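Sequence in, structure out.
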Amino acid sequence: MSAPEFNETIPSGGDPTQIDVNAQYAGLEFHYTYIVFCGFIVWLIIPGIGLLYGGLARRKSALALLFQSLMVGAVTTFQWMFWGYSLAYSRTAGPFIGDLKNFGMKNVMAAPSPGSPYLPEIVFCLYQLLFCACTVQIVVGGAFERGRIIPSLVFGFLWATIVYCPIACWTWNANGWLYNLPSLDFAGGGPVHIASGWAALAYAFVLGKRKHAGDKAHGKPHNTTLVFLGTILIWFGWFGFNGGSALNATVRAMVAAFNTNVAASTGVIGWSVVDYFKHGRKFSVVGACEGAIAGLVGITPAAGYVEPWLAAVIGFITAVVCALLQNLNDWLHIDEGMDVFKLHGIGGMVGSFLTGIFATSSISALDGATIASGGIDGNGIQVGKQFAEITAISAYSFTVSCILLYILKYIPGMHLRVTEEAEMKGLDHDQFFDEQIGDWGMYDELEKRRMELEITSPGNISSHRPRKGSSQHQSFSA
């Protein structure tokens, strides 16, 4: 059954009061049903990142990261409807950025989408919106434990507009320069991971290091259970992230979903192996979670191009490389506490490079239309094209992000960082009213008992009874 064709004279797909706009997809409904389902589970990545970040943070700043995940999704939805979709995917785009042909969702409805003729454009728009939202959520991790919420949301809106949308246009729009090079990026190694990794590094660089004054909890996750739960939601959502990026329900999409699970699994193994030998034959739950994410990042550009066993290699190599860079922040003298640059920036670059080596047309052709080969098929020049994608996106994202952050930093009322006092108390206390994460009744009880033990400890005084010859009202010495 042939796919419907876009008609320029009726860009919205037709007047539903005059014709049945569904008729053009008769017999092909399974394609857009599958993709919209993938979009629904991609949404789970947004709160998944919030839970992951909240668990990695110190308790006093965890609530801010949960709140931020919902707000980023909301703000990015508005940005995408306002002009983001048009800047990334308008059919009349240039090689670097789209125009405003679809400004305000104009004509985005029932016509075959620019990404796939099997999808109504409204389905394609929703699916790509969630990619943008996930990317911005990754970026704001660079403000970890010291960034003010409102400026981070303003930055997220502007970053999506002048960084994400142009890079998405380069990579996935049929008029984009990377699309026509071509570089191979199945699901977002460049626009999502490399771009967000470098932007988060820029955010951390502009904000400066956290103040911790010898805090023993500094740099340690406050709740490993939240980290684990967030990782599980991210892993599950990634089935839709990669599995839907074929933009159809062909066998290629199923292979991409399979490769996603394979790479995440070998990522867990790779990171855990490094931890085992690096830390005296002991494991880490957080390390295993980071390994899963590294594997997912590495396979993102390659999922629909490589054989399952090579997906396993990509996940393992990406996780091992990222695990061996645990001191990266010290080397760079930047406090990027969420490891966004390490996991997404470096992981995305490794994955994109390996895609150029391992891509094979025998997998890409499973959708019945795409022929894409890499070094393993004798197309060695593809590795150079992948390198062009990596360098262009890295340079553009880091440079423009720094410029944007410095501009915002000096706008009155838009200072990016909380005060030192607020940072020491925690973002939750500074940015929210009457809300704290966890069971604070238990926390207060433990704090009370700790103070009682300090008072009665041998170093202070062994009894509450006053000493002989002292007044009943005499204060105890500390």
